[in-house]
Input
Amino acid sequence: MKIKNRHRKSFALRCCATMRSPLPIMVCSMVGCIMIIHFYMVSHRTDVEKSQARLRQISATRELGQTEEESFQLPPPRSRRSPRAIKRRGPRKPPTVIDEFLDDSSELRSFFFPHRRTAVDPSKEGNDSMHFYPGRQWLDTEGNPIQAHGGGLLYVESTGTYYWYGENKDGPTYQAHRKASARVDIIGVNCYSSKDLWTWTNEGIVLSGEETNTTHDLHKGNVLERPKVIFNDRTGKYVMWMHVDDANYTKAAVGVAVSVSPTGPFEYLYSKRPHDCESRDMTVFKDDDGTAYLIYSSDDNSELHVGPLTGDYLDVTGDMRRILIGQRREAPAVFKHRGTYYMITSGCSGWAPNTAMVHAAETMMGPWETMGNPCAGGNKIFRATTFFSQGSFVVPLRGLPGWFIFMADRWNPSDLRDSRYVWLPVGVGGAADEPLEYSFGFPLWSRVSVYWHSRWRLPEGWRGFR
Ligand code: DGJ
Output
């Protein structure tokens, strides 16, 4: 009777009943043990793998953060003054390094602008493969010098591809009038693609200059600088923002273009003065929550302005903050690490290099604090001139939290098409060297360093870190 009842009971109870015999109990316990051991091993293995990956990252980034020293000797002044001239005007002053840098007949020319035969060439295999050489010519996969000045990168996750947008300056350099700064006619915005950040394929001109219509913003006689592209997840469109100006930089506006593909063609929409303010050097930054911001030098370059874009990224909203007032900064490049926003800027000295500064903020809208010069290594002059370059963008290095690439231009005002690229590792970490005055001796922000290397590469297997 008892057995009959048990049969009527649930399956679970039936199982329990069968377990009265020792064999199934043993089997169950063994299976349990095996599962526990398996789970332990799997979780232990992922822990071990994680810490191995972490160690790999630490040792890989150690090299990025090692600084290199540089030295060079300034040549003596080329002509001596006659005794009469010395009496009248004193002895000739030795040239400054900036004078030498700007002088295309300087003996130091090949130091700043190394010869074509030293070019970084992805078609050549060997010791130099995958190495960055700041200041050397950099060739694309077809063997032509990369023309993407004042540029920025966009990463497209779905294809693991980086796109580099920048000014095509492959034309003659001239001065529009005696007092004007050197210029090249607008050709357009070039785009290059790469999966490893070193081998770049030319995708062509994705936004063209205008040859004939003199009323067009992008007429060749005007200025198109610092193009940056961001992707709008909501509209599925690639949106390009750029500085558009007339030859005398009095228009001081931003231009907007849009495309359904990262490789264009981009349709030019319009230009405007954002928030009714002058806008010269600029950048855009897309935050993790999808909000994008325009940051631009304004009010005769005396301050920067920052404000969010509309949801479709095609315009600015009415919200704007004035930041770094009176500091006269340009060439903003924004990046974010562990919830803090950082921005590297340059001073304003035309095509001549000057000292970079890094700023930090808890929100994009500020307040922004100036932390100091991020350049590390090289020598005093290198650090004071941003390694003879001017920043344009900061790229986060995927899989290496706290590591970035500083993209900068070494402008060559006597032949702008031969301006070079200076790409260097940036590390965020550790306390800032100099605590800010009001922080009671405690540094508020982590130190940001741009490390000088005459030759460097991304960590071996970097693409595998993702
Ligand atoms: C410095 C800016 O950063 C560049 O983009 C360019 O506008 C030059 N000035 C022109 O002198």
Q: What stands out?
A: The CA atoms of residues 285 and 293 lie 5 Å apart. The chain has a mean pLDDT of 88.
